[in-house]
Amino acid sequence: MSDILTDFTRLAPELVKAASAFQPAIFADVAGRRGALHGRIKAVSPTMSLCGPAFTVEVRPGDNLMIHAAMTLARPGDVLVIDGKGDETCALMGAIMMNACKVLELGGVVVDAAVRDVIELRELGFPVFSVGTNPNGPTKNVPGRINHPISAGGVTVHPGDLVIADADGVVVIERDRVAALLPEAEKKVAAETARIAGIRRKEALRPGWLDAALRSAGVLKPGETL
């Protein structure tokens, strides 16, 4: 099998559009609290968000050769998800590459490694999520893989999976689960909206499930309540 795969099934655009209406936290909840990348991967600016199909890239620590290759192959709307091994000794991408990604109309970049030129990236507004920053530049010498399954932030990511991110972090949902989870996301939002409205009316301040959960945990005895 080639290290560079150019053909994979992307999430349907209408599903991406529908998914973009929800917060990543909602998807993480309805997906069974799975899919959230490690909190070390954060938005360069808290106002940044993204939603799109994953275009996966695996690189060796400190080398961005395969990211340049990926940028020539990715389609508008694709989100580059880069397994940089969590390395923070140098930046894999900076202002030049991110400007190119924006012109290419990519959906954003999620990199399990460092970036640089952070002030310029914030001004650019193109959504970038990384483990941090480092002024050192990368090498461009070492082979890697494109559009193979990768691990980013402790989560397995397949090409075409849904990637959705905001100030809370990044969530990845398997491509085949998205359509089924959208109605669940709508229900979750409706339930949370009603709960918050009740709280603001000073109603339902005590969760209905609390006593049962405390009994199950052994904090309360059978029949006891707070």
Give the overall shape, derived from the CA principal axes. elongated
Q: Uncertain regions: pLDDT < 50 for 5+ in a row?
A: none
Strand count, sense and closure of the main sheet? 8 strands, mixed
Tell me what portion of residues adopts beta-strand conformation: 25-35%
Question: Would you count the extended β strands for me?
Answer: 10
Instruction: Specify the number of helices.
Output: 7
Q: Evaluate the radius of gyration.
A: 20 Å
- Structural class assignment: alpha/beta
Termini distance?
Answer: 61 Å
> Topology as H/E string?
HHEEHEHEHEEEEEEHH
What quaternary form is this? single chain
Helix content: 25-40%
- Rounded mean pLDDT is 96
3D architecture notes:
Strands 1, 2, 3, 4, 5, 6, 9 and 10 form an eight-stranded mixed beta sheet that branches. Strands 7-8 form a two-stranded antiparallel sheet. It is α/β, with parallel strands linked by helices and 226 residues long. It contains seven helices and ten strands. α2 (24-30) packs across α6 (178-200). The longest helix is centred in the last third of the chain and has 23 residues, at 178-200. The chain is 31% helix and 26% strand. It is elongated, with a radius of gyration of 20 Å. It has helices spanning 13-19, 24-30, 65-73, 95-103, 118-124, 178-200, 210-216, and strands at 42-43, 50-58, 79-93, 108-115, 128-133, 145-146, 150-152, 155-157, 162-166, 169-173.
